[in-house]
Protein 1
Amino acid sequence: MPTTRRPTKEDVLSAYRRNALLGAAIRVFGERGFDCATMERIAEEADVAKGTTYLYYDSKQSIYDAALSSGFAELDERTREAIDRAPNFREAISAFMTARAEYFFEHRDFFRMYVAAIARQITSSRPRASEFQAVVDRQTRRLEQAVARAAARREIRRVDSAATAVAIFDLTRGLVARRMVSTGEFDLAEDVAFLSELVWRGLRKGPGLKAQDPGDKTIGKREKGQRKGIRDRDT
Amino acid sequence: MPTTRRPTKEDVLSAYRRNALLGAAIRVFGERGFDCATMERIAEEADVAKGTTYLYYDSKQSIYDAALSSGFAELDERTREAIDRAPNFREAISAFMTARAEYFFEHRDFFRMYVAAIARQITSSRPRASEFQAVVDRQTRRLEQAVARAAARREIRRVDSAATAVAIFDLTRGLVARRMVSTGEFDLAEDVAFLSELVWRGLRKGPGLKAQDPGDKTIGKREKGQRKGIRDRDT
DNA sequence: CGATATAATGACCGCTTGGTCATTCTGCTG
DNA sequence: CAGCAGAATGACCAAGCGGTCATTATATCG
């Protein structure tokens, strides 16, 4: 441990400061949104003066980005663990939903930042879309792989794994968003059970569209049209 | 037609102005978001001076609210028509998805406002949540009724209709959001077909969880636990 | 204990923007 | 055409905020 050792005193302090700033940033951005959040408030929340903030981060934007990625990293880690731990695909679905929902409920401010960030991406016309897109994509990747594996193993029918993954992703997001604004009690396990069963049943092998209404034009073709689903392969 | 007649010249002009302002507002709020949008820009987009704007709307907030509700009203109308026209529940699902997706693609700016508004609601801590919540609720109400009807008619299994409705709602929202940011081509009908089939299969009658993994604790109870699902009965 | 280097501070600047209001314009009426 | 009422205008104001930097506090070392 000779060469790159020694976290000098400055390093430690610096790390501490950066961290405090990051936490403060998540809190403030979470409750005010990017535009309404002020650097003054973030600094004060981190117990430093405004000027100090600029010793650690270049700009409001940069501290925002840092706060966002730090949350994303943690969330991804949790998601990955949850999926890896699941013994089969059916449980992977509920594990995915549960892990994410729990993380978000434990970090409400981050969830708010997250939602605002997505909204921002949709709103602002492409400044650095692909970069952010990659982060979001990474979130569904693991799930997508799990879907593909399950299909290969014949646990489920053949489906577009990317489209399936984002569907599960969207359901989870919706669940969290709804429960986040509501004030009353609720049982997360129950919500997850409902949604994961819905999806599971939807993916089970079995007769396709039993011609309840044969004349429909949009339904019926596909069922193996892999590649080309919902997932957007941008660029 | 004697009493409340006569749209006086002023009335007509006033209506025209309000409308132009509303359109401009949707455009500007849509592409900049509430905070970054400026009254100056909205006025200019509507071909009036900034001061004129305040002759028709009290404040930035009030023109924002007006723009949002006008879009919501139109969207709700379209959604209602689509569901009503559907001959059965299965088609109601895809009609719902298609109608909303098409509306959003035709009014991208409104979709952006819409997403930002939701994000805003999640972000800001309860200023006038219930009021806005009601508008959002109305969007799933029709669908919820359709689900309940279908269950009663035995088209599908017994499920929590509110939870089912929001699930379909969230899938639709996700679909639109994803396609909105992506730049490439895509086939809406295909996306809708995939999702509506997923949901339809998920709702079909049939054996419940075929004990692929019996020992799970969160899955299994319910299947008729109406009332208490995802939908939040706030207040 | 000085001396020096580095970190922290917060008053301050420039700029943006929501909202106002004195002034100007428009078109109707007699 | 003159006079006038109401609509429209845009210069202006005050407030808020991101970012800077001269000044001050702190830590290290000889």
Protein 2
Amino acid sequence: MAKRKPVSIRDVARESNASLTTVSLVLNKRDGRISSATRERVLKAVDKLGYVPNRLAQSLQAQKSGFLAILVPELRHVFADPYFGELISAIEEAANEAGYKLLLEVAHKQDIEQKRHVELFQRRFVDGLLCLGSTNRDDFLGDFVGSDNAVIIVNNHLPALSLNSVMCDYRQAGVLAAEHLIDLGHKDIAYIHGAAEVQTASDLRESFEARLASSGIKMPKNHAADGLYTEAGGAAAAAQLLKTNPNITAIMAGNDKMAIGAIAGLKNAGLSVPKDVSVVGCDDLQPSLYSDPPLTTIHTPLDEVGHRACTAVLALFEGKQEHVTETLPVSLTLRNSTCGPRKIR
Amino acid sequence: MAKRKPVSIRDVARESNASLTTVSLVLNKRDGRISSATRERVLKAVDKLGYVPNRLAQSLQAQKSGFLAILVPELRHVFADPYFGELISAIEEAANEAGYKLLLEVAHKQDIEQKRHVELFQRRFVDGLLCLGSTNRDDFLGDFVGSDNAVIIVNNHLPALSLNSVMCDYRQAGVLAAEHLIDLGHKDIAYIHGAAEVQTASDLRESFEARLASSGIKMPKNHAADGLYTEAGGAAAAAQLLKTNPNITAIMAGNDKMAIGAIAGLKNAGLSVPKDVSVVGCDDLQPSLYSDPPLTTIHTPLDEVGHRACTAVLALFEGKQEHVTETLPVSLTLRNSTCGPRKIR
DNA sequence: CTGAAAGCGCTAACAC
DNA sequence: GTGTTAGCGCTTTCAG
């Protein structure tokens, strides 16, 4: 089983009494002009020697690596976050179908300072880059503006930088969530938000508030709290929110994680969800199914986002496309964390 | 910003009036014999042209790729599973420190049939391979036995194949869980297991039962159920278990996922956790903190497993080590899903 | 101290 | 139909 000395195309040529060219042609199916006798001989030799072309040599020659990199922020256990995980799974599937391999890149501070993200292309590590979890503070992404590198922002967009992106319609998400709560009769509504530097987070919040406002519902300043994009943050925010404003009957959270945290925080404060307080999340990730109660949330089609993003980055690389800005529709997933407000019951 | 024509070492040589050799020597710090004047000139040229060496060419020449691949099973949304995620995060950290890049490989059925996993090495895609979520049915891993490829089984071991591995002590885990339940006074204990083809799952279960037995507690056949390694499976198993044996006071689950599912199933059946039934999990992943009640579970040091596995695979690749079989100790994490049995309260 | 030249393994013009 | 040859971009003997 051991393979000390790898077999090269040269060995195949020798074994089959053919030239390098012939072997190469046969292997790459450009063998219209090769006699079937020779082809057979070559194929037999390939089989006998167990030859497989060295990819490094192929890539060097072809001037492309066949790799796509996924860039994620430097967070503790990023890959354990189902949000990134779902996106990565979807991207992997699409990349695999297209014959590409996936490279994992974490935006370690050092790497960014040394512009390693640009080197990824310069050094021919990758043909394309998919950026997950980007924020408005990621100035380094500016290095890609105007470059001819195939880069795409996945499920976000950066207003300050004109970069390609594929994302969900978070404005629509805000509207749907607001309308759901309005329909249920809620008037005293609070909001737990994620980081303001995430553009889609702002989009979501703005459109949510705007839709509320258009139905005559105002959200005072003290009805909003930062959930830090974590369960713990969501729990703390919910507890504090209800302590300050006991008449709140519904909470919208910027993502499922914070919503699940909020439910925990509420229960902890002796309140029942949804009887006392309704909670709505956003993302519709797996955990929202197993929260107690199961979470009513906005479904964002992350699978499709991942697929499209991957397809798009390849189109960019191949020069088939110049710019990409796709926005995918979202929908409301009704589960059991919402009901009418306690007053009118 | 656009870089149509990448700059090569040749350009640097020309710009600095030096030879290829000289430039290469300077860049690789093998410049003991280069005059500092020349060095300066070269460095200046490098800077001016923004030269970065092409990694494909370097790798081709060095006969190593600088990549490590992570092989995961083909499950729906694998990467969204926090178990794999934590492992991947840990591996990424270690790989990054060692200057290696990570490749994602999913064991798609087709790829396995075509022996793509072996090609990973033959084609020089990677220098080493880390296998996550392997099972006793993964015959293809046999292709690596006796080969000189750097392969390591992460957090598992395959008795049928002598392969390198780094894992947690699941036998100890079984003992700790059993002792915890025994100490609390439980006598009527059930077990929700994952797939039997996962060796560590069998280890865990066997040692759990053995420890119980040594304290005179028998677990009848009908006190065990398959949780399919999923939340839904855990929920169904728990419900069925208590329907058949209403006097069960504690349940051990093969992992956190099934434990969390079990809690949901129990609640759904109108039982309270831990008052009516105690539940113990295994893994201590993030979600166990936010379950309701927070889960008492066996802490498996996945971070360390990932780190060690990565270090080990590199040691194997560099020939510094021949065989690796590490087993890391686990511990009990006490939270609120367990208490004494209802009878003796 | 520096450079010419060979070679890593492959592909593709361009002969023959 | 098939083979020769020149690279892809880099490192590394080996001369000078």
Protein 3
Amino acid sequence: MFKISDFSRLSQVSVRTLRYYDEIGLLKPLQVDEGSGYRYYSIDQLQQLNRILALKDLGFELAQIFQLLDEDLPPAQIRGMLRLKQAELQLRVQSEQERLVRVEARLKQIEMDEVDLTHEVALKKVKPQIVASSRKLAADIKIKYQLASEMLDFLKTNGVKQVDHMLFIDHDGDYRNDDLSVVEIAVPVNSSSVGNVVERSGGRITVRELPGVNAMASLLYHGSPATMIEAYQSLGRWIQDNGYCITGPCRKVCLRQEGELSAYLTEIQFPVEKGEITDSKPTVYFSG
Amino acid sequence: MFKISDFSRLSQVSVRTLRYYDEIGLLKPLQVDEGSGYRYYSIDQLQQLNRILALKDLGFELAQIFQLLDEDLPPAQIRGMLRLKQAELQLRVQSEQERLVRVEARLKQIEMDEVDLTHEVALKKVKPQIVASSRKLAADIKIKYQLASEMLDFLKTNGVKQVDHMLFIDHDGDYRNDDLSVVEIAVPVNSSSVGNVVERSGGRITVRELPGVNAMASLLYHGSPATMIEAYQSLGRWIQDNGYCITGPCRKVCLRQEGELSAYLTEIQFPVEKGEITDSKPTVYFSG
DNA sequence: TCTTGACTATCACGTTACGTGAGAGTGTAT
DNA sequence: ATACACTCTCACGTAACGTGATAGTCAAGA
């Protein structure tokens, strides 16, 4: 039996961490002195602790580790979970590498100082459309496009006719910083060809009328959706400078999504209305 | 000017995050209505926000971003910091890949069920030694070995004679879970050759007598220091089973550190004493 | 004018895996 | 008796927001 500091030395885990694991029930000392409250660990518990550390290293949270160790799952299932984690890790490595690419781009951009691109903004009218749509919680654009293509496949195999470009609708301004956000994938369809696709999709797809918009500030964006933010700036500037305000969620019409991401063509739309929010507090006019 | 939700749509940043950035002073809205408290943002602030997001993407913390934007640093310095971050990111990618390797190893280990290696433990006496030592806060073994070799170089170029194997001493059981821990790198030296190396090192190196130990539980570990934990288990088991207890910090004597990590040879030492901590509460003997 | 609904605001607490003292009790050696 | 090394239990701090709860604002419709 070892005192906590000795067990700490053997396990290379901090005393505070051992106490914490005791507190949350992840690794309770074999024995606790009633009088003093001193914790005593057996060397046998080192193996358990090592398992915990290994799982932690794999990226599991302590709560999950608790379950894994507690439930005494069949090894097959454990292997499954590990494989899953492995896949996750590989994804992480990938996304880190992509981040490196972005860093490179940023560095270039800073080298050539400030670049400010201005895109042409047009004001147009958009008619109402019947769309088959589905709402998804997705992490990044790749996944969104993947979900979208799955949906297109589903519609095609169910005989639904697509009559216009697919579009994404960002809902409720419900952006979250963990890069998860709710998008609606909407495909304009021939309403007579819809049939019972709603039921066949198990309710995941709904059909509704996407309302028309009298004034839609619109901009064509040529390039990867990942760098699309710069276009939002142009749009926002136009809206502000022309005395409009935004009245609804943003739509992204996918005009071309084939080949390289940098060759994608997207129309970004914001429904707007005249009526600026003035710089200062609304002036109060006295009558007369 | 845009209300917070519209600015959220334009920037793809959640309303809550915008409020948070206001709260910490990172991005204050251009204007706040006195009566209602409503926040109003100008499109010009989008560029600033994008800069913030870019820096965040690079892995900076918000506090650092605050400084970067606030201090209006010269671009050269900014570039420097970005390059630094880039290097960090590359390291992260590397370490993630190493983690993947570990996962692979773990998977194998689980496939072949439980493997329990037992190492031979010896009890020996260790004489006191004069050592030149230096304490470092280091993240992982690689870095520790790097620091060690730097120190060896320094000693050699200053004419100090090494008379025995270098060793690491884990201090105070001060392990921390962020993988940072304090190690002492100690090199047994010929005390007459030390000269004024202490001053020349700027006090980073000290010379002292490493105390001898009457009973040292010792074990030879052949393999990468990264997987050394398994040896601690054997040592701990021996100590427990033979009725000893640990009386000081662990020492790792580096017997061979050349070539592949897996070819490293290390002696792990724990100072011990007879006197077991019993399983149950210490029995109270009545006199007589 | 009142109500409804969409929006906004400010607390205040929750998250993860511990770190960091503060203040007090324990165990052993001098 | 006292010093010290160690242990304990609170309790609060961390980073970057998310998640309600509750209340005030704003424009449109009845």
